[in-house]
Design brief:
CATH superfamily of the domain at 421-438 and 449-527 and 582-639 in chain B: Leucine-rich Repeat Variant
CATH architecture of chain A: Roll
Shape of chain A: globular
Structural class of chain B: mainly alpha
Order of helices and strands of chain A: EEEEEEHEH
CATH superfamily of chain A: PDZ domain
Oligomer: heterodimer
Strand content of chain B: under 5%
Helix content of chain B: 40-55%
Distance between the termini of chain B: 59 Å
CATH topology of chain A: Pdz3 Domain
CATH class of the domain at 421-438 and 449-527 and 582-639 in chain B: Mainly Alpha
Largest interface: A-B, 39 and 36 residues
Number of helices of chain B: 36
Number of strands of chain A: 7
Distance between the termini of chain A: 20 Å
Number of domains of chain A: 1
Radius of gyration of chain B: 31 Å
Structural class of chain A: alpha+beta
Strand order of the largest sheet of chain A: 1-7-5-6
Number of helices of chain A: 2
Largest sheet of chain A: 4 strands, antiparallel
């Protein structure tokens, strides 16, 4: 997805809802996240999925720490994500073309 | 007492509140660094030199201090060729897109190690003394350049002209913050701070900023201050080879705090300015010791039109800095027509430019002087701000926009403009999402909590102000889809989490109170519910309501909906209107279930404004002759709200006592309430009268409006109730009243008191005991006469006559007394009353820079004009983004 900084972006998103697991005292999700706008995007460990929103929180301009915090809030047991994927985008585009 | 016509406090008074004087407590500049004490932060600084090598230094700051950073802009020293001196190396192209971001995420003030090579050698000295600063301040450096995401990479080739103090930038970054304990890091170079021909900058006296809790730890905002101590200390950004320090940026901390070299932006702009203008006075003469000159205001404004975007951004940031707490500069900016320039920049394609422009506008919009606000409106500022809010994903920009709107909203002529352009956006973009309210609540998920973000606080403050603008404003807000629902949800969430003292809650309750004003007249379909007079329970007009234990009947909120079943019980003798579907929107304002919410707030909150507003809401809802008021009055009783209110009569705060007294007065339109109030509240009411007449200690004197409100309440409850009149006698009310009539300086107070006395005298049954106590008609009459007129009625249309329909009294209840609706208008950033109460923990102030107002506010004993709140500091130079990390970080969640 190319975008111009400062301009709105449209993307194909997928809604994902995850219920956190309880592990000891914590609620965990069970995966790792990488990136954040404070990170070097060229070295993102997981480049495939990008998260747009977490439980309503905008994730498009967050630092790594902020993203982590929003995913790991204790008060929320369910995390609803809006994720975008390159493959998703392509699939939709192809289906629209055909 | 203001007549009912305004249920709201007169805008005048509010306006004065709104426009906070530029007290030192107000912090306009956003550059506040606040960090939760004790939060360890880690800064990473990266410097990339043009040869592509990257140095990364990580510093761990274990102690966080509040950073107040002063920033002084210095010009780039010019070399003999008139171009800024660069210590070797090609100038960076800071203004090349994106190039800057890489390099300037200096965090933690990387020691000289992060300086690029050339400058390292120059042996510049770091400023002494700064305490460990939290990285945020350093982050500001990068902010200054306006680039957020660090990108590892070589410094791009700079513009050939090198006038952009690039090297300086680099230096600045590395130097600025003095991270961590000195021992903890190596500081190869120490810069020698020395004044460099810098005039003292006495522009603004930065107030001390105290961070607020709302400030996220990530958010570094360095407070930009310009202490008058002059620019003695500078952070020498780099050491120019040629001289002993061209300091490019002066970040001068007011106290031994680390300075963040915020001047990057300025630097660049200065550099460009320098190149363009060549006015550095001493450049030519003393190459060795370049003199710096800050750009003049017209120059800065001219830079706003500079073709190079970063220059624009930097100029705007510098402008914000200049305007901070400086009414003169703000005025001059307007006179020099700077405002249209800034408003135009709000639509600029580059985010950084927009952000900076908004920061400058925020500062400019703040203050007692309303001309700037008007000027901003005149050049289309409000729609531009709203556009920016819609488009912006960046939280900082949203905070700036909403903060500016809050500032503007305290100016009366702008309120409708803001409603016209911004109501929908503010509601849908901020209020609804942050409140946790969901339009179609998912049955499976539990209700979301409200997020008390700064953006929400600003927006709620803005809406609070505009909600006081009269009937049309109220109508618009009531009919704005989702607004009332979201506010209610947020308030319920606050009560549920026992977090009821913050500013956002205060704002929300005030909006609710304002919107509750005159609901019985203004909402669509109100006449359906009108009653001839507030009748006894159960005499309501409408048909029997099917009682259902269905939350949806009570508004469809998923909220902590335990009240459903309990609510039913309350209406066993009342007929509620038949509801075919859940109440939503403005209907929620007067559903009886709000009673519990307001009572919870009254019980739990320590915020006097919140208390006043909640009591005010109940007052508004209990007024009027419609069915809902009947239910509300009864519900308050059934929810055991009367004791809560009576207890608040003991409050030391005038406004709370006043609001509660008037609420009780309206509530006593319900007969059973009247009896109860007469029994249980009389002692407190009389105590207040006694305090009015003979204050127990100096300064405890109640205000006139409060006294009159209390007296009116007494009058209401002793009218048409012999028992209550007797209670008054038993509470020794008569001597207090007589003494008040005799001694009061206020005509209104005396009139009201004598009015009560006359009513008491009219009970023949009591004459006996009165005379036994030595009271004679003459004495009563003389008391009345002193009050100028036998029927001195505290309110228009004196009702001595108990045969007057209660309706009038209820109306009077609305009108008289201070406020029916307390618009609390001005308490926006311009009228921030949060902090003013001594008792009030100044939490609302939160975030960057506002804290500074706390101190003075605390000392302000006057309730009348709560010191204007700080407009949220506009610029947060430190990027909220975290550190620049060359290696990707991933976390397990």
């Amino acid at each position: 997805m190319s975008y111009i900084p400062g301009q709105p972006v449209t993307a194909v998103v997928q809604r994902v809802e995850i219920h956190k697991l309880r592990q000891g005292e914590n609620l965990i999700l069970g995966f790792s996240i990488g990136g954040g706008i404070d990170q070097d995007p060229s070295q993102n460990p997981f480049s495939e999925d990008k998260t747009d929103k977490v439980n309503g929180w905008d994730m498009t301009m967050v630092t790594h720490d902020q993203a982590r915090k929003r995913l790991t809030k204790r008060s929320e047991e369910v995390v609803r994500l809006l994720v975008t994927r390159q493959s998703l985008q392509k699939a939709v585009q192809q289906s629209m073309l055909s | 007492m203001p007549a009912e016509t305004l249920g709201e406090q007169s805008p005048g008074s509010q306006a004065s509140l709104a426009t906070m004087p530029e007290a030192p407590d107000v912090l306009e500049e956003t550059v506040t660094v606040e960090e939760d004490p004790g939060t360890p932060t880690s800064h990473v600084s990266i410097v990339t030199s043009e040869d592509g090598t990257t140095r990364r230094t990580e510093t761990k700051v274990t102690k966080t201090v509040k950073t107040v950073t002063t920033r002084t802009v210095r010009q780039v020293p010019l070399g003999p060729d008139g171009l800024p001196l660069l210590d070797g190396g090609p100038p960076l192209g800071p203004f090349a897109d994106g190039a800057l971001d890489r390099h300037f995420l200096l965090r933690g003030g990387g020691p000289a190690a992060t300086l690029s090579r050339a400058y390292l050698s120059s042996g510049a000295g770091f400023p002494e003394g700064p305490e460990p600063r939290d990285s945020s301040s350093y982050g500001s450096l990068s902010r200054g350049l306006g680039v957020r995401p660090p990108r590892a990479g070589p410094l791009g080739p700079g513009p050939g002209d090198g006038c952009f103090t690039l090297p300086g930038h680099r230096e600045a970054f590395s130097v600025g913050p003095e991270p961590g304990p000195p021992g903890g890091r190596s500081l190869p170079e120490r810069f020698q701070a020395e004044p460099y021909g810098l005039e003292d900058d006495t522009r603004s006296l930065a107030a001390d900023d105290e961070g607020g809790p709302e400030l996220e730890p990530d958010y570094g905002t360095a407070t930009r201050r310009r202490p008058e101590c002059g620019r003695g200390l500078h952070t020498r950004a780099y050491e120019d080879a040629a001289d002993d320090g061209g300091e490019l940026t002066d970040q001068r901390p007011a106290f031994p705090a680390v300075t963040a070299p915020l001047a990057q932006p300025e630097r660049g702009s200065l550099g460009s300015l320098d190149r363009l203008v060549r006015r550095s006075p001493s450049v030519d003469s003393a190459r060795k010791e370049p003199r710096w000159r800050d750009p003049e205001l017209p120059e800065v404004l001219a830079m706003l039109r500079h073709p190079v975007d970063p220059v624009k951004a930097n100029a705007a940031a510098y402008l914000q800095h200049l305007c901070f707490e400086n009414e003169g500069v703000k005025r001059r900016v307007r006179q020099l027509r700077g405002l249209p320039l800034l408003v135009a920049l709000l639509d600029h394609p580059r985010a950084e430019v927009r952000r900076r422009a908004c920061g400058a506008l925020r500062n400019l919009s703040y203050g007692r002087d309303t001309d700037n606000k008007a000027a901003i409106r005149d050049c289309g500022g409000v729609p531009a701000l709203v556009r920016l809010l819609r488009a912006a994903r960046d939280n900082e920009v949203r905070e700036l926009v909403t903060g500016t709107l809050w500032n503007l909203s305290s100016y009366e002529p702008l309120k409708m403009v803001i409603i016209d352009h911004g109501l929908q956006t503010l509601t849908h973009e901020v209020i609804v999402p942050h409140s946790g309210w969901e339009r179609e609540p998912n049955e499976d998920s539990k209700p979301r909590d409200a997020e008390w973000t700064t953006v929400f606080k600003n927006t709620s403050g803005c809406l609070r102000n505009v909600s006081s603008d009269g009937a049309e404003a109220r109508r618009r807000l009531r009919e704005c889809e989702g607004l009332v629902d979201a506010l209610l949800h947020a308030l319920q969430s606050a009560v549920g989490r026992k977090d009821t003292d913050n500013k956002s809650v205060e704002n929300c309750v005030c909006i609710m109170r304002n919107l509750s004003y005159h609901v019985h007249k203004e909402v669509p379909g109100a006449d359906r519910y009108q009653e001839a007079e507030p009748g006894p329970l159960g005499s309501a007009v409408v048909s029997q309501r099917r009682r259902r234990d269905d939350a949806s009947c009570f508004g469809g909120k998923k909220a902590k909906g335990k009240k459903d079943g309990e609510m039913d019980r309350n209406f066993d003798t009342l007929d509620l209107p038949k509801r075919t579907e859940a109440a939503k929107g403005f209907e929620l304002l007067y559903q009886p279930e709000v009673v519990r919410l307001y009572l919870s707030l009254l019980t739990e909150s320590r915020n006097f404004n919140t208390l006043e507003a909640a009591a005010g809401a109940l007052q508004n809802l209990s007024a009027g002759n419609w069915m809902w008021a009947t239910y509300i009055r009864a519900t308050v009783r059934k929810e055991r709200g009367l004791p809560v209110l009576v207890e608040l009569l003991q409050s030391e705060t005038d406004k709370v006592v006043r609001a509660v007294a008037i609420a009780l007065r309206n509530l006593s339109l319900d007969r059973r309430n009247k009896d109860l109030i007469g029994s249980y509240a009389m002692a407190e009411l009389v105590r207040n009268v006694r305090n009015a007449q003979a204050p127990p200690r100096p300064g405890a004197r109640l205000e006139e409006d409060t006294v009159v409100a209390v007296l009116n309440t007494i009058h209401e409850i002793v009218s048409d109730s012999l028992d209550n009149a007797r209670s008054l006698l038993q509470a020794r009310g008569v001597p207090a009243l007589v003494a008040l009539v005799a001694s009061s300086q206020s005509v209104r107070e005396a009139k009201a008191a004598s009015h009560v006395l006359q009513t008491v005298w009219s009970y023949k049954e009591l004459r006996g005991s009165l005379q036994k106590d030595g009271w004679t008609k003459a004495r009563f009459q003389s008391a009345a006469a002193t009050a100028k007129g036998p029927k001195g009625a505290p309110s228009p249309g004196g009702f001595d006559d108990s045969t007057l329909p209660l309706v009038d009294k209820s109306l009077e209840g609305e009108k008289t007394g201070s406020q029916d609706v307390i618009p609390m208008d001005a308490l926006g950033p311009d009228g921030y009353s949060t902090v003013d109460r001594r008792e009030r923990r100044p939490r609302g102030i939160g975030s960057a820079g506002e804290a500074s107002e706390k101190e003075p506010l605390k000392l302000d004993p006057s309730r009348k004009a709560p010191p204007p709140g700080p407009s949220r500091p506009a610029v947060r130079l430190v990027d909220a983004v975290g550190d620049a990390k060359p290696q990707p970080v991933d976390s397990w969640v």
